[in-house]
Amino acid sequence: MRKISFKVESNLCDDCVLALRRFIGHLDGVDDIDVEDGRVVVNFDELKITDKEISRITKDSMEKLGYRLVD
Questions:
Q1: Engineered SS bond to 2: which of 12, 43, 46, 69, CB 3.0-4.6 Å?
Q2: How far apart are the C-alpha atoms of 9 and 5, rounded to whole Å?
Q3: Second-level CATH architecture of 2-70
Q4: Which helix (H) or strand (E) holds 19?
Q5: Where are the domains of the chain?
């Protein structure tokens, strides 16, 4: 298992956390998504999904919810 962390521009509301988990949590290889203190942490199986794919999908999902990731 691998873990990748993203810093978010602002804290996510509870409904957005649930939506993010629905957007990303169903992907093959994603084990868990933690959201706290302005960070999104995705635990995943790197044999099933790559860092690049997780990053792109997380960024796209956050933008759909109206949030931005901070570099």
A1: 46
A2: 13
A3: 2-Layer Sandwich (3.30)
A4: helix 14-25
A5: 2-70
DSSP annotation string for 32-66: EEEEETTEEEEEE-TTTS-HHHHHHHHHHHHHHTT
19, exposed or middle or buried, with CB in 10 Å at 0-12, 13-18, 19+? middle
Tokens of 14: 């509870």
Q: At what angle do helices 14-25 and 51-64 cross, to 10 degrees?
A: 140
Task: Give dist(CA 17, CA 10) in Å, integer.
Answer: 12
Statement: residue 5 has pLDDT above 80? yes
Measured distance CA(37)–CA(61) in Å, rounded: 18
Q: Is the whole model's pTM more than 0.85, yes or no?
A: yes
Q: Is the pLDDT of residue 50 over 80?
A: yes
Amino acid in position 33: I
